[in-house]
Amino acid sequence: xxxxxxxxxPAIEQKSYADLITNCSQKCSVSTKGLVAFTSSFxxxxxxxxxxxYHVYVVDLNRPxxxxxxxxxxxxxxxxxxxxxxxxLLLCDSHGCATIYxxxxxxxxxxxxxFKQVFAAETFISACxxxxxxxxxxxxxQSNLKTSSNHLEYSDKIQxxxxxASLRLFGGKAAEGCLLISQTGLVCCLTLMADGTVGVVxxxxxxxxxxxxxxxxxxxxxxxxxxxxxxxxINSTISFYKVSLSLKNITLDxxxxxxNGNGDxxxxxxxxxxxxxxxxxxxxxxxxxxxxxxxxxxxxxxxxFVSKDSPNDVLIEVSGQNLxxxxxxxxxxxxxxxxxxxxxxxxxxxEALAVTIKQEVDATNGGGNQQQQxxxxxxxxxxxxxxxxxxxxxxxNEWSFKGNYITDKSLISIQTPKFRIFGPxxxxxxxxxxxEDSSVCCLRKxxxxxxxxxxxxSTDVPIRLLNGRMELDSSKSCKVYSGNVYNNRNNNRSxxxxxxxxxxxxxxxxxxxxxxxxxxxxxxxxxxxxxxVAVDSMSQLHVVxxxxxxxxxxxxxxxxxxxxxxxxxxxTGNDWWDVLVCTKRESIATICDKFHDAYERQPKQIQRxxxxxxxxxxxxxxxxxxxxxxxxxxxxxxxxxxxxxxxSTHKSMLRSQDKDSPSDQLSxxxxxxxxxxxxxxxxxxxxxxxxxxxxxxxxxxxxLQPLNQWVIDLAIFLLISLPQQxxxxxxxxLPGAGLIKNKEAxxxxxxxxxxxxxxxxxxxxxLPVVYRLNDQLDxxxxxxxxxxxxxxxxxxxxxxxTLLEECIxxxxxxxxxxxxxxxxxxxxxxPYLHSQQDISGGRLVMEYFxxxxxxxxxxxxxxxxxxxxxxxxxxxxxxxxxxxxxxxTNVRHCTRCRGVSxxxxxxxxxxxxxxxxxxxxxxxxxxxxxxxxxxxxMFSNKMSSLALVCNTGNFVSLSQLANQLAR
Length: 967
Prior knowledge:
Blueprint: E1 2-8, E2 12-13, H1 14-20, E3 28-30, E4 35-40, E5 54-60, E6 63-73, E7 77-82, E8 88-93, E9 97-103, E10 111-118, E11 124-129, E12 134-138, H2 154-157, E13 158-162, E14 176-182, E15 186-192, E16 198-204, E17 214-219, E18 225-230, E19 239-247, H3 252-259, E20 269-275, H4 282-289, E21 297-307, E22 310-320, E23 324-334, H5 341-365, H6 370-392, E24 396-407, E25 411-415, H7 423-426, E26 430-435, E27 439-444, E28 455-456, E29 461-464, E30 470-473, E31 485-488, E32 493-498, E33 501-507, E34 520-525, E35 531-536, E36 541-545, H8 555-572, H9 577-580, H10 588-600, H11 604-609, H12 611-622, H13 628-652, H14 662-673, H15 682-688, H16 698-703, H17 705-727, H18 743-762, H19 779-792, H20 801-813, H21 831-840, E37 844-847, E38 874-875, E39 882-884, E40 891-894, E41 900-902, H22 913-921, E42 932-934, H23 938-951, H24 958-966
Parallel strand pairs: 1-37, 2-29
Antiparallel strand pairs: 1-36, 3-4, 4-5, 5-6, 7-8, 8-9, 9-10, 11-14, 12-13, 14-15, 15-16, 17-18, 18-19, 19-20, 21-22, 22-23, 23-24, 25-26, 26-27, 27-28, 29-30, 31-32, 32-33, 34-35, 35-36, 38-39, 40-41, 40-42
């Protein structure tokens, strides 16, 4: 295990710290989309909290220093649980208020309550979402990871195992919803219906309500839930219940209600709870037998299933006086259960009775027909021994004690994986333990032994003293504190940096103070189980890399393991950030090559399905290196994503035919006859196809003009860069220019040029703008001709000198604008991660609400003689329009790259279907695959403050105002 980074809170006052640390039961939850929700007993950006309140924040794992507030309450939050899709968050507080939150317009900075229900006088202690009915597992070769599996299809690598859904609605569709368990033994179900309503039903676990202290929920293979509970006393039974959900049959009255629009489908849901197999703790038998001094154990604090998808293994943690005991129990099938003595006596009597019956039958028949005697005997014997035979062959399940783990530390939290990615036979079952001293231990489930040495996650909490200075609340040295406070190890004094210079602060207080400790309160594994996230009592986040889930012998095995994990993210839709941060600098290129090679071996229909997503994953890997060649490959992937998306949008606008669409006919024609010299002329191509089939409404075409402009700029960039790449005496690194060697990209580009040409005849306003020095030059036809010549000669080893000369002549006849579709990485998953680890060798330390100081990117080449028409203005990466140098409102930014975009399109263009089709494509994620977040409007605040200063007369010229804006 290795800590990747820690995010510290801003400095707080010494007086407030002792008050806040008392309410330190913080919780966290990690979604499948790479988001972390965590609680806080105070507002993160307040130096001195004004009142006692509880908050829930959400952060992107890539930008953990920018938290967004979800909810605020006067009551403590007890439940945080993401749904399987990672888009809905369940929150429950100590007063029985259950709320489901969703993001507005898919912005992680704006969350709205989807449904809210209050269960009076209830406190929920456990919850889980309904099972979707499918589990994806990785099928690893049984021999070892060195066996190449790139020839296998994804369906053979990633198996979709069927699993019964928790509840199925009309038509067999798996229902969405969540199940909650309260301290009084109440089971509450919130079911999201198809019509947008939420059905609420509740039932008791037991016929009599009981008080529960801890509980956990697991999925059974038949679709039901297994709920493990404990009252907290070691003398009581660890009870398990089987909770099933079902739909009631529809009656004639219900049919009439639904026909009249008055029916409520949620009332048809019913809950059935039955007693499951239970057991007493093994520690109780030791106390009774007086074999050990176990009287120190007093209370059951945790109950946790080893895996959510299997209720057969459970962990029970018992705490006492400076001791913690973890017991592992396993549910096993018993073929020969013990039989009660009364049943055995009944069996002996039945056997004696059978002998007597046989004698009577023989005497009655007098030695008659032997076959009839045997038949009478069998019937009489079966009648007497039917119940005894059934009892003797009965099979049942039973909890068996498998082992325990004892430690002299106080245990705070236990965490296990939600499901097994590599299946139950290959995966290493991990058990994470968080102790009160801020250490985390990782155990193996097989023998309950630590895999590695415990990892210490203690951090220094900056305390602001009354005189305005700061100290660090820790006896340990501080590594980094955002460049403001750091520890001077020579004289054990902290240096505080300010605008007026540096000065020595008071010595660090090493004596322990009451209620002045910081410890881990909760752990959560990521969706791919490569890292885990820990939150401490001060709501500070820590991300730690986990050991590999399967045995890896060397570095090549680790590369293959990470390739499997990336393919798992590709198929399941999970976020791949936690896999990125586990890669090593020297392994990134190899992993990308293996990942791409496996993708190229898939069937064509599978490649088309995952085309954009695999490019996003590869681009994310490439831009983790601050090297020119790697950054250019990342730009090639992003450019290909945009080109493929534009082609799909343009082709979807065409009228579909009974057999082949016009776009399919055009594509087939260019592949078969497009390499002939007479079809390098676009007019000859247009004469062979029916232009009427490509006609679209005029207004719809005009809305796509920015996308047409992007296609033409890309075509010009590729052709102009071709002579520079071939004739240059040194290696040229032009971001995006690698597509000139991509045959699929050239084919797509030719098709788009033909479509744009036809649409330009229908509506001149849809044509792109190109500044020509020769008015007689037909730019689109010339681009099509040169690209067709290059496409016909791509297989030749030698370059076509005529083509290069014509490309140079094209550059002399038009104005070359700077084209660069480069989405540079930001946040942790960037070259910043590897550069900082190479320098310090330890974890990264960040602070909430403070941006990272990312290193400068390697300088990339540009086309000779190009003009940057945009300058400092920001470009909408989705719509290819200028947003100005300082966009104020209605702007969103990506959490994984530096891209920005409008949250909503212009009012005039929003009403057209072509605009809506394009907008929906990038509504959920950025082009790079990152999340959208609304810009914080810092420039708007700066403008307001400057306007106030201007009104006071402090500025005497516009140049001073511009200088202030630049700062």
